[in-house]
Every structure is written in C-alpha cells, then in structure tokens.
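Anyone able to model this chain together with iron/sulfur cluster?
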Amino acid sequence: MNFSRTTYEALGLRIFTIAALRLNGTSSTARRLEMGIVRLSDGKIVDRQEFSLPVPGHSHAGFPPGKKQIFHACRDWIGDDPIVIFGPGTVQQITEILIVSLSIPAVRILDAGELARIVFPWQEDFRAEQIARYLEIGWRADQSLVAEAEQTALVFLGLLPAILGLDPEILITLCRLLDAVPDGAGSFFMRVLALKKSAGFQGGVRLRHPARNSLGKPFLEESEETVPPVLPEEVNAFFAPQGPLSCLLPHYEQRKQQVAMARSVAVSLNQDEFLLAEAGTGVGKSLAYLVPAVLWTRKDRSRRVLIATHTKTLQDQLFRKEIPLLFEATGGAFHAVLLKGRSNYLCVRRWESLMSRTDSLSPDRRRALLPLVVWAAETRDGDIEENGAFSVDSSPSLWNQVNADDTQCLKSLCPYESHCHVQRARRAARSADLLVVNHALLFSDLVNTHTIMGAYDTLIVDEAHQFEKIATQHLGALFHMGHIIDLLQDIHAESKRSDTLLHRVDAFAARRASTDFFREIKELSEPVKGTVRAFREETAEYFRTVAETLKTRYPKEEKQKIRFRENPFQDWLAQETDALTKRLEHLAQQLSGLLQRILGEYGSAADAAVLEMEHVQLIDRLVALRRRIEHFHTSDYQDNVVWCEFDPKAQEDSIRFYSVPRDVSAILASQCYEALSRCVMTSATLTVGGRFDYMVSRLGLDRIEPERMLTQHFGSPFDYSEQATILFPTFLPSPKESGFVPEISRIIGRILETHHRGALVLFTSYQMLREVYGRIRASMDDAGFVLMAQGIDGPRSALLKRFREIPDSVLFGTNSFWEGVDVPGEALELLIITKIPFDVPTEPVFEARYEFIELTTGSGFLNYAVPEAIIRFRQGFGRLIRSESDRGAVLLLDRRAVSTQYGRLLIGSLPAEPVLPESEEALLSLLQEWFHGIPSNADRMST
Ligand code: SF4
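re: yes, here you go
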C-alpha cells in the first residue's frame, strides 16, 4: 500500500533511514558493527551506504581511539532523520552503540521488530525475514547488508498499513504504556493516533486474528433413535490407498497396524467397551483413534468424545495437524474444540482494570505489556499460547495479574461476562463433538463435578502411561505460605494497590452520601486490616517455626523431601496450626460482618452485588484454605502419602506440604470410569514383558467388568532388526560400583570421538549427568564437538532446537528427555542410556507404594520398581527410531540388564534382541560395523 507524502509527513517518516546491522568478530578488539543503510523519501529508497564501525570496548567509551572519522562519516550520512532497525537479537547492544557512539537520540530510533510484536502478536517468529514471509514479501538470504536493508525497508513499509489499521482505543492504550519509554515508539504511536483522528484520513488495514481453538460449528439436530455402528469398511476406506487421507497427505502409506488399531477403537466405541491399546512407535495412534472417533460422532451428532493428552506437544499436534486434516477429509463434518485450564486465558475484566491504572506500573512492566495490547483487543480465543510475542515464562507475575484465575473471577456478576474467553471456551467445549483437553484439566473437571466441560461418556486417553501420575497429583492437596499471603494480599495490602477488597469497600463507602455510613464502614474495616497485618506476621512466624523444627529434626544441608508417617500437625505443629486455622475462621467472620453491614444498608445497589460477590469469594477461599490445612490434620497417613519439601538454604516460603492418595486405582474407577460408557486408553508403553497386567491394575481397569475390558498390542511398523543395533555391553562395572561413572565417561567419550554422529545420552540423575559432562567436556571441545547438556547449556526447547539443527551434536539429558523427544533422521543416530531408570527409592509416593506392595502382595521391587523402570526405559528407547528410514544404534551401559533376573523382563520388553559385547574392543568394532556404510553428516556435507 502506497501512502501520500502527507501521511509520511504526519508519521514523521517523510525521510528516514533503515539499517540492517550485524555484529562481527568475537574478541573485543576485533569486533565490528557492520551497517547497511538505505534512505527513504516518501516511501521510496533514494540512497544506500555501507559502514563498518569498530565496536568500542565499553559501550559508554565513545569513539575508539583514532576512529573518530568513520563514526563522523556514518553519523553525517544518517543525518537527523529517524532510523529504523529490526530487533530483537543483539538489538540492545546495537542500540547502545547508535546512541552512545553515533550520538543518535533514543527518541529517533524505532525498532520495527517491536512494532511487529505489537501488531502481529500471534506470529511466532519476529525476525525480519519471517515477518516478510507473513506479509508475502519476497526475502533473499545471504546477501549484502545494503540489500538486506532494502528488504527490511519493504518489510517496515509493509507493517505500516496494519499499524494504521489499529483502532484508536488500542493506539491510546499503546501511547499510555509508552509514555515513560525513552525510544521512538511512543512518539511514533502518538503520530499514528493523531493521523487516525485527523479528518479525512483513510488508510490502514484491519487485521483479524482467527480463532484457533475450535473447528466447525455445533450441530443442533435431534439424533435418530437407533444409531448405526461405525462399520469396519468405513474405517478401512478412510485409510485406503485411494482414501481421503491419501488424497491429503502427499507421502501417505497405509500402515496395517494403524488400520487394525482404528478398527479396534471403532469396535470399542460401537460396543461400549474399554480398550487399553499399546501402539508401538510409528503406528500413528493419533489418527488410529481420531478417525473412528470422528466417524462415530458423525453417526449421531449428540455424541461427544473427550480426548485427553498428557503433554502440550501432543495436544498441539492433534489440534494443529491431525484434527484439521480430518476436518478437511470429512468436509468439515464435525465440531472440535481445544479447551485449556483457566490460567491460559486472558481475563477481560482484569485486563481492562490494569489498563485503567497503567500509571502505577514501572516503565519495564509497561513495555512488557505492549505485545498484549493489540492481541487483547483482537483475540477471539484469549489463549495466551497464540501470542508468540509475549512469554508467560519471562513475565509470570504480569500474566498472573491479567489471567482468568478462578479466585479472581466475578462469574455471573462480571460486567464483561458476555466477552469472557473462559466462558466462551467452556460453552464451545460443551457443544463440541471432539473435545481435546489435557489430563490435568480432566481431573480438575472431575473434582469440580463436570462443571467445566459438561457431561461426557466417551473418553480417549493418550499418553496413558502418565495417567496414574497426573491423577495422583490432581487428587491430592498442597499447602504453602503463598496460599495464605496471596489471599491476605487480595483482602488488604499496605501499598496503595487499588485491587484489594478493602480498597474497593472504602471506595464503595466514599461513593455514598452518608458520612455515618462511611465512618461505620471505616470502623468495621480497620479491625480487618489489623487482622490481616497480624495474620501476615503469624504466618511468617509459623513457617519460621516449621523451618527451625525441620532443621533440627532433619539436619541435612541439601533440599529434602521429608515423608511423614505420622501427623506432624498434631504432634510438633499442633498449637501453631490450630492458631492458624482459628485466624482464618476469624477473618472470614470479620468479612461476613462487613458484608452484612453493606448489604443491610445498600443491598439493592448494583455495585453492592459485585462487592458481595468479591466478599463471598474471599470468604470461600478462607474456608477452603482452612479445610486444606485441616486436611493435613485429618489425613489418613496409611492411605495418603504426606510429605514436606524443604530446602534449609532457602526462605521459609519455599516449604511445601503435600498429601496425595497412595493408590488412585479405586478413585479412578469410581470417579472417572463409572460415568463412562466407553473408553480407549493408549500409549506406546503400556506392557511389561509383553503383558498388560501391571498397567491394568495401576489404572484400576481391573475393576471394569471383564467382558467389557480389552487389551491389545499393535506392533511398531519399524523393522528394528534392520533399522537398529541394540548393544548391552557386559564388561562395564555395575552402577553400584564406585568405578561406574569414571568408566562410562571414558567409554562415552571414546564412542563419541570415534563415531561423529548425532547422539542423545540419557541419564537418571543431574548429578551423574554433570559428572560425566565435566569429565569429557574438554576433550569434546578439543575434538570440535558441540556438546550440550540439560540444566547447563539452556532450556529444554532451545537445546532440542540446536540439537536438531547442528549436525553431529551431542545432547545430554535427564528426566524430561526420556519422553516426548522426536528427532527423526541423522540428527539422532546414537542413543546411549546410562542406567536402567529406577525411581529414587526415597521419593515419598514411590516409597509408600513400594512399602504397601511389600506388605500386601509381595515384592515391591519386582512388582513395582521393576515395571516402572521398564516402562520408562522403553520410553527412552523409543527416542531412537522415529521413522521408517531412521537407522541407529542404542547402547545400555547398565550391565544389570544382563546379569539379573529382572533384566530378562527388560530385554523381553524390547522390539528386538540385544547383542552383548563382552569387551570394549568388541563393542567398538560392532559399532564400527554398524555405522560402516552409513555416511555421517560430516561425510554427507563434504560430498
Ligand atoms: S467472567 Fe471472570 S474470567 Fe471472565 S472476564 Fe469476568 S472476571 Fe474475567
């Protein structure tokens, strides 16, 4: 879109420069800022120039000695017009150079990357080339900086229509937030606002963000009386070589295991059965349950299927990839919704409230809010996940101030209820044919008696091997200092926070004409403030006492999980805990008194209803908290696992008390399965030694009528005997021996140096990971390897991204890397598993379950520790072969797999027999043989 000279003039951009910048060199003496700059006049490029500036050793040092002229030349060329750069990346350092060495005032520097984050918050990548792609502007990589500046200019000009299309209300909010911000963005948006308000201005493009969490519309017709079943032929036809999937997937190949699983799922849905289905890696289990689920709901649109996953990765894969595919394949014949927990959604009321008092925010917080402004106005789902420009992880407290947290929700009294994202998402969820949630939300809904997603009788659980763990977490209770302090903060804060209950009570009283009423309310609210103050002190004192007692009783230096077999709240914490619960009760009574007085006088006033709701909510929270603390008093210490997490070096507010059911199988059966007519539970790892018994019992599926309960295994389509070599060396020390870590470090180093392959090394503890890393790091560096380690070289997602991108890199991971790592192809050709992943025996839940089995049915080790370890081992093992063309080697360095009885069970759980090298030379020669003829990435790149 071309704008007139007057428009550019009004924007302060009649003449401006755009710079593409790059910092080159690593040592401080050799570092240079390379600049390609173009000048634009009336939106057209009129001049180009390149500069190479030595970077001052210290950003405030001004010109490096003897280099003044080049800086002057650059400064003169740029002149006094605005300069646009495209962050992020090294933008801060570059901006400093521009400001300090080139004396360009901050107010003349405009960061187009930040503008892109503001206007296109739903994008994921804000580099100039990505924004160019989004704006459908061609972008050529690997070009001169001047050419890059020319392209960047086109991208910036491409942003202007969207900026000029913003609503004036949004622009006002942006101007308010940018008021105290020192760079060019504030004055730029002021100019945009003035231009928009000027008479006769027409221009700009209004962009609408599409809804992402729902597909299709609800179907409202009544169902027929008898609904035909999903026929096997229908399932076959869907997966057939000429079927709908093959038309949409370019490299589609029918997999018999996938079709078999889909047919079994259809039978379970038709015949009201429970199916526990293990689907080996590569079966394509998601489509194997989604296809029959869609066919089944289409027979009768009053049917709903709830699909619960454990990880967000799988949830995203279902909702962004596979469900849209089926939507297209069926001509949009169903309604699918993705529903998340409340804290993922923006609360419109809290957002508006925060925007009305931006003055109270620091400049940093205001700037951090910028990517939310346009998104908050335009989003249809209100799901923060869709906002790629705002990171909840980087700004958790900011997000907590505006998310739809249940404790802050006014429900039916909310003036924004009709625009509420949570309410809308839940309404959509209740009418969906296919509803996708995570395990955690499923359990929240169970606890809340289905008020979140409505009734359902058909459930598909993916990643079912995690279902017991998540049920345990969500069916338990947690208590820590923050629970009390946060609640008190919402009632009264000593700072001038305007969003506390007592602040609103004061404002309510001040709005009435009656000075008597005002005085009376003051008289009632002052004691509440007093109670809050005293309670804060007592809470801090309580947790100090807990910390001191724990330090004396459990005198260890490091972080501990202390399991209580008897009730500490009746023993050494009795008096203090009692005082705490009494104080909660007292505060609830005081708030009730205050509320009664308000309602007695002004019960019919509209703003009194909101105040009443807020009072009731806080009183409910006080009562719920009292019950939670009492729960620890009354917990059955046999049937519940109660423990405390405590770090003697940390503050008291890090102390956490937990109580979870020791066994969830009966709860799952009575609270979850009983309401279901049919259920499919699936995962790649549900069997131990080829049998389902262990998982059936852990998940409480042995409580289902046997004739309705089926188990079925669908083998992987991969040919492991051809695609992988499985090596279990027998010559290494046992993990119980002191020489284990030094020896495996040496072997790992030797293997990695001999075979330059993308390698994932899985550990069972950070301690071991760090030790091995420390031992081989230097030699790996010397050999030119890229070695990355979890917890040392960055967060999980960044490590995985680099691991995929850097050929032949090596990644050390623990815990979360055993599951959900999907790296097909040459990036991962060697998987080394250091130990059989047994749980830590002192982990409270594990320990309690282990002990119970020892007391009742037999060996806790064989009946609990071993099956758990095998399931986890199989998850780790599954990281290697991810597609039919993958090839690789997997090593287990724990010789117990071959020297013990339970090792046979582990070997029996693998898709192919391992080879057992008895010496280091034999191991290396087997690897040599295996990789012989498979070119490494280095070989591939050199040819
Ligand atoms: S109903 Fe609750 S979550 Fe929704 S906008 Fe109102 S206060 Fe926020």
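Residues 260 and 714 are 8 Å apart (CA to CA).
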